[in-house]
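Lab notebook: predicted structure, single chain.

Context: the supervisor wants predicted structures on file for every construct in the current expression panel, including those that have not yet been purified. This is the next one on the list. No modifications to the sequence; it matches the entry in the shared construct table.
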Amino acid sequence: EGLAVERIAPSDLDQGPGGQPLPHVVRKAWGQGVPDGITLSGQFEFTMNVSDKDSLGEMLTWHMLSAGILPGSLDNRCLKFTNQKGQVAVGNKEDISRILANTSAYPIKVKYEPHPAFRGMEPEKVPEYEVNRVMLRWVKEAVAELGADMSNVRHIHQRRTFERYLLYLEDHYYQTGDMLEDAPTHLEVIERYPWMEKAFLLTNKTGPNLSKILRGEIDVLEYLFGS
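Prediction complete. Output recorded below exactly as produced.
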């Protein structure tokens, strides 16, 4: 009557062939090993009532767990508290505490929606990507100052570079939806991630003056290495 069908239990998918544990993201793709309520979506939203006033920590911890967000990767700039009157507190401890302490502010909607540039990104990759956003911000500002017009670029070899700049920006916008309006300055990145300072050893001069370099107002080598 044919061979018996061999069934695979969820526990069989806890480890790979070599005994290594399989990450949740893989098991979720198989529909196995992920408890009910765990979305691993990287974002969440919940409502706090007055009775939850002293339970923010527990509620936040659960929703971070369900969304697959590690404590060290939570970006408080993306954690928004909105009271029943529509007043919003975000990224400011004093403002958030003030809303939570006011019993007439409830119910309060708590929403965590990561920046589109970092959605789904591993936390350890964020500093390097922030450096990339700084570079793109400099490019965007230079392109705007030159009116996105290649004829405003003085040297022919730099016109080819300018053309690539336009492509870099359009590709970034299309791939991430990040229009760079809130891209940090290089000083803000260094303050937040001091070990990334070496990434700006030369570009901290050329980046802010990129439009002048493209117009031919500054010789880049003289600017970098001149006395």
